[in-house]
Design goal:
Length: 98
């Protein structure tokens, strides 16, 4: 697996020097910037952060959240924050809710 990265400082292309698998969902690579005189040497982490569709063959110990679940959790959190804000406003300004 070869992934291209650009240097965060000068924007030049960086060469991958090594890539190792840290876990079933995480890879770590060392990159060296090709920019003239830059010399930046850095580590990149690549990880599976969410699934767009569940795997048909599940691997024991691998848990990648479904994007749909994250969306539902985000909406539930947003709704809870809005509900608390409405309740607080109703306490502060009871005449407005009548
Ligand atoms: Zn650079």
């Amino acid at each position: 697996m070869r992934l291209g990265f650009n240097c965060s400082h000068c924007g030049s292309r960086a060469n991958n020097l090594s890539l190792i698998r840290k876990s079933p969902t995480v890879w770590e690579g060392v990159y060296r910037c090709n920019g003239n005189g830059c010399g930046h040497l850095f580590v990149v982490e690549i990880s599976a952060i969410r699934a767009l569709r569940a795997a048909s063959v599940a691997r024991r110990g691998v848990s990648i959240p479904l994007a749909r679940d994250l969306l539902l959790a985000h909406r539930a959190r947003r709704d809870e924050i809005e509900r608390k804000a409405r309740a607080e406003r109703a306490k502060q300004y009871p005449w407005r809710s009548q």
